[in-house]
């Protein structure tokens, strides 16, 4: 098969040629856009899921839908070592520019508020050279979004942004990736701001994406966050959607898969979108001709697995310290069986959810002594705790990779 015509895209955040299995989320968001623009009450959105299920791809697709509605949009990625002010200021600056408001004085006022919000990060009395400029050439508006309390300031910022968008009958959407990495104060402020603009009926929404424990992070910050956001779980693709993700791009290049090849691909990928793209690319390059057969899949599978071992699994494993790697391996060993009596008893758990007590038992240590390693792995985004006393990999099939390496 011609590698130049290979349609698959196994890159981080790259949109696949066929965005299969996400029609429900796209349709729901289109309703949100229309309702908010009409002043109807609607909640902000939160997408949750494991690594490799396409959260970032879906986030970008939702942003494209907002742009088509002529909304102002901005996107940022949260980082554990960075506050919210600077990246959010850059994102909403872009959103204001996209709105295309015709009244220059009103636009300048809101941009001045954005600037004051960003520069307040340096602290009161900071020298000019210590203040960060978000690329806005209007003076900061004093007394607005610059109190130093990020919750107060963010409410004021969103209120002014919403008023500007409402003038045009449009809206502003802020797209926030890796939302679980926000600091506690920033999470609280974001929830408060979304709550305030929702009560005021202003056309500003936040669309966040993060790991499966993100709802718990939000709930711990504000008890009303469970009602503040509409939560959408982004999971692996159904068999039909996974087949379509492979077959539709191939058909565009006058190629096809046999039914046996599609079954073999689903068995290897488990329906996880990133794996679908990675195996699809490898199989296309190895297959001599169309239709692609199960034999072609078997020949190409080791190449795809080797690529995943380095770029998807290995790069994450290398970020862990020796003690953290021991913890990860113990998780893989402890996650070998589904609990007795449950559905699928005796099978390997693909997600790797285990109790922290079982991990400690594998290592022969007390659970309390392993807390530093576990907490560090959570901060690095390698594992997450969906419920008290349990831990799981953020990357599907990571336990399988560790067992194979052993």
From TrEMBL:
SUPFAM superfamilies the UniProt entry points to: P-loop containing nucleoside triphosphate hydrolases
Domain of life: Bacteria
MF GO annotations: electron transfer activity; heme binding; metal ion binding
Segments of this protein annotated with the region Disordered: 1-20
Pfam families cross-referenced by the UniProt entry: AAA_16
InterPro entries: AAA_16, Cyt_c-like_dom, P-loop_NTPase
The Cytochrome c domain, residue ranges: 166-317
Protein name as catalogued: Cytochrome c domain-containing protein
């Amino acid at each position: 098969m011609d590698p130049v015509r290979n349609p698959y895209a196994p890159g981080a955040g790259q949109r696949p040629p066929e965005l299969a299995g996400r029609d429900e989320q796209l349709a729901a968001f289109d309703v949100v856009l229309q309702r908010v623009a009409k002043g109807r009450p609607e909640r902000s959105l939160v997408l949750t899921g494991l690594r490799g299920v396409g959260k970032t791809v879906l986030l970008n697709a939702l942003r494209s839908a907002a742009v088509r509605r002529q909304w102002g949009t901005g996107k940022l990625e949260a980082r554990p070592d960075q506050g919210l002010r600077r990246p959010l200021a850059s994102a909403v600056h872009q959103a204001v520019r996209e709105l295309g408001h015709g009244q220059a004085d009103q636009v300048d006022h809101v941009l001045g508020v954005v600037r004051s919000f960003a520069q307040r990060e340096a602290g009161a009395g900071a020298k000019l050279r210590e203040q960060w400029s978000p690329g806005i050439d209007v003076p900061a508006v004093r007394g607005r979004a610059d109190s130093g309390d990020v919750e107060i300031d963010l409410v004021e910022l969103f209120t002014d942004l919403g008023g500007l968008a409402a003038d045009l009958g449009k809206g502003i959407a802020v797209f926030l990736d890796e939302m679980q990495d926000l600091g506690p104060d920033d999470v609280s402020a974001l929830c408060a701001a979304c709550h305030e603009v929702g009560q005021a009926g202003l056309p500003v929404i936040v669309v966040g994406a993060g790991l499966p424990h993100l709802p718990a992070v939000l709930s711990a910050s504000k008890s009303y966050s469970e009602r503040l956001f509409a939560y959408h779980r982004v999971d692996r693709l159904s068999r039909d959607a996974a087949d379509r993700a492979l077959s539709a791009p191939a058909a565009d290049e006058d190629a096809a898969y046999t039914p046996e090849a599609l079954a073999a691909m689903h068995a290897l990928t488990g329906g996880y979108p990133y794996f679908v793209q990675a195996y699809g690319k490898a199989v296309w390059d190895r297959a001599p001709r169309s239709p692609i057969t199960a034999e072609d899949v078997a020949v190409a599978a080791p190449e795809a697995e080797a690529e995943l071992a380095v770029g998807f699994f290995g790069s994450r494993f290398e970020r862990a310290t020796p003690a953290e790697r021991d913890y990860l391996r113990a998780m893989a060993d402890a996650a070998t069986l589904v609990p007795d009596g449950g559905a699928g008893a005796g099978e390997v758990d693909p997600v790797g959810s285990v109790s922290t007590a079982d991990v400690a038992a594998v290592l022969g240590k007390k659970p309390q002594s392993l807390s530093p390693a576990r907490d560090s792995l959570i901060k690095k985004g390698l594992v997450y705790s969906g419920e008290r006393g349990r831990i799981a990999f953020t990357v599907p099939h990571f336990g399988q990779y560790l067992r194979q390496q052993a």
